[in-house]
Amino acid sequence: MSITKQTVINTYLPDQPLPGTHAEAFAPSNIALCKYWGKRDVELNLPINGSLSISLGELGSRTEITESETGADQVYLNHELQAEDNSFARKVIAFINLFRGELNQPVCVKTINNIPTAAGLASSASGFAALTLAINDFYNLGLSDDKLSAFARMGSGSASRSIYQGFVEWHKGVRDDGMDSCAERLDITWPGFRIGLLKVATGAKKVDSRSGMQRTVESADLYQSWPQQAANDLATIKRAIADRDLELLGQTAEQNALSMHATMIASWPPLLYWQPESVAAMHRVWELRALGVPVYLTMDAGPNLKLLFHSEYEAQVRNAFPELLDLDIVAPFG
Amino acid sequence: MSITKQTVINTYLPDQPLPGTHAEAFAPSNIALCKYWGKRDVELNLPINGSLSISLGELGSRTEITESETGADQVYLNHELQAEDNSFARKVIAFINLFRGELNQPVCVKTINNIPTAAGLASSASGFAALTLAINDFYNLGLSDDKLSAFARMGSGSASRSIYQGFVEWHKGVRDDGMDSCAERLDITWPGFRIGLLKVATGAKKVDSRSGMQRTVESADLYQSWPQQAANDLATIKRAIADRDLELLGQTAEQNALSMHATMIASWPPLLYWQPESVAAMHRVWELRALGVPVYLTMDAGPNLKLLFHSEYEAQVRNAFPELLDLDIVAPFG
Q1: How far apart are CA B109 and CA B89, in angstroms?
Q2: How far apart are CA A152 and CA B261, in angstroms?
Q3: Confidence (pLDDT) at B116
Q4: pLDDT score at A1
Q5: A100: Cβ–Cβ under 8 A, 6 or more apart, which residues?
Q6: CATH at A37
Q7: Would an 8 Å CB–CB cutoff place B265 in contact with chain A?
Q8: Residue B77 confidence (pLDDT)
Q9: Which of residues B161, B185, B209 is at a domain's end?
Q10: What is the pTM (predicted TM-score) of this model?
């Protein structure tokens, strides 16, 4: 039997928080170079494997919490008031409830995602990270970064990584309450590192990654080899980052992402997030690489590609992928 | 150190064969429902896992051997004389050399593949099976079916299965000389069983399956789980055939094929035989299935799909895939 989120939070939080007045926080989106795929605990979002990501600087979510003036909780997303039974609003309020306990103070939560729609990025990681940071500030909880990361993880696994900028490792942890399953920023920058956000398809009906990873764990025989591969890839990627070796990083990150997709494809029913346009773009990346341009791809639980390359090759990448706008090439270190 | 093909053949063949006069043999193409992927011995084409296929009745290769009238070996493919250094001609002559030893009798070998180009089927399985049968007849070797299958396997792994019609199991075997790695016909027919050959792409540059499977074995961590999955799938498929359970057969064959592709996708460099059109067709199959039509897909080391269904649903399948011609729907049991 899994420990509940509420039990964990109660253990680590001070008594009933005092009412707050105003808080605002920002958290970046992140793109995993070594993917999180599979949970050892579904309630607490504890992962089977460790993962590593790069945060996207100024692309992410900004969340503001104030006291509600209407006497009821209110949730805004991108300036629009969300209905009480809206799924986003319910998730936000359920998460806040974990922290405010019996406190009778309605709040107004406003979230703005500045992630370009064209990027095809999930916003739950930055969203839950920003919300956790704002909650910490609003209720004056004084939580350490480790605890902020662990609590954000309870909202969405990869939110644990969005607490930090730069290269971030999420330790899988071994504890039942998951408090050692939190992220850590790697103390390294890599100014030439670039990420291209390539939107190749939209509107495809998709299985959310939460149920996708469960289906994989339960039905794909090939998943058995994933945890060990992920552990090896994580170590290799850390070494590649330390050495600023883009080729080693790119190869390992690409094989890691494709192996994650391979476990989905081997599931039943088959889980194929790729659209025809995804495969066309994949072949284009490989053709460009065959021409000598060191560009690598990674993909998450969706049809879009993210390209990894060094600024030195930005012109060639732009030339081969003219659909990449300025906005869609991210320099994570500014 | 692997035993050579020649050593194995010499062990099981009578002394030097006598010159022959004329032989003709046909062997069907086959489509694996449980795939052969990975070798434990590259020289002898000994597989890591057992496999199971359905032969395609009258679709396949017909091979005729006669004494050459020119004093030199001659090889024809589909009525065209092949140059001596042509890769097809070299493979055929090298295979015949294994059996004729020092015999000084030039031969003329004529092979005709009646597999519709549109089907996107490999012809090496039926080709080497027909050649082995013709050699047995031409030199009057009197080989048993087991030996014919094992010798055909030395030409091309899946040729071991093309010795037989119907459902055929290729036992992986355990012997170093591979003589127990031969196929066996299952004693069962299934008149309503249908296969649709769906050509979705051509001309794509491809890695041949021989090197593809080597790359997978050597570079894909996920391949570690493949042999056990294949063993389980093989047992399930045999049960499904015995019970004439198309749903169980289709599900297992589809997951098996996609898992094989998953191991390729997880290789380095990535091995993706799929084209955009392949993925479009895969989604179409799944949409049709979501509408209640029990149709399943299988794919080999190429971009094309093969559809598995029961004759009861042939109208719906034809309606959803109008590109299927009569010729591209095979009724393996007539």
Answers
A1: 9
A2: 36
A3: 67
A4: 62
A5: A17, A107, A139
A6: 3.30.230.10
A7: yes
A8: 95
A9: B185
A10: 0.96
